[in-house]
TrEMBL record:
NCBIfam families: PRK00283.1, recomb_XerA_Arch, recomb_XerD. This is Tyrosine recombinase XerC. Gene3D superfamilies: 1.10.150.130, Intergrase catalytic core (1.10.443.10). Site-specific tyrosine recombinase, which acts by catalyzing the cutting and rejoining of the recombining DNA molecules. The XerC-XerD complex is essential to convert dimers of the bacterial chromosome into monomers to permit their segregation at cell division. It also contributes to the segregational stability of plasmids.
Amino acid sequence: MSDRIMIDYLDYIKEEKKLRKNTLEAYSRDILQFREYLLEHEIKGYEDTNKTIIITYLMSLQKEGKATSTISRSLASIRCFFQFLLNNNIVKEDPTLNLKSPKTEKKIPSILTIDEVNLLLSQPKSKNFKETRDKAMLELLYATGLRVSEIISININDIDLELGLLAVKENDDNHRVIPIGTLALEALNSYISIYRPKDKSDEEPLFINYSGNRLSRQGFWKIIKQYTKKANIDKIITPHTLRHSFAVHLIENGADIKTVQEILGHSDISTTHIYSFASNDEELREVYKKSHPRA
């Protein structure tokens, strides 16, 4: 199993498939894990891989307790890989043909009420560098629905404070532009004017730690956890909870699904539709409570 093939494939999904950064990383990780499985089971070449081997591999992931969504993505990664091998005459047939992905249950995302969001976002008091930074991050996260990987990747010059716009890089060639709300802009103005003046270089990170380095994903999670505890909110809150809450609150207040899809950066609108279910779910509960004699 040539390392050259793997290098060429990773270049292919990056340069030709134009996958988003998160998807690219997941596909790369999936296929390297699958390759390791083949080597461990003494499969000498990709042309020796058949449907049974792939099914057995997916079953091993299930036994390890992997989520259905993870297994489905792994199959999608393997399918993409074998299509590449087939197109380059490295294998004669695609063993993933007619293999069906396991059905994933669409779970209603956990969200915060607007009061809980306001309570959480009011915790940093902007008295020092950390609180000013944290206030700006939390306000921006709820104002835009960014993924945690996106918010820590923002550079100073990705934000136009005058126009109130944020450019989010999706891959080497594409980006999406998101409007920023008034309260988030105020928090960002305070942070940038004092701690991150915009005469920095294009690649200068917006959100930094005490050492001056780009804030890490783990660092951001700790910040969320700290303010959740401080606000005494009895829920598990992650950066994605604010992303979910942002989407549901937009839909509840009349935003159309297509607009929310574009802001969130979903490639498939069916992913965005789950937020309308969450919105309707709360509405149905209220109607039920008011209408059912034994509710």
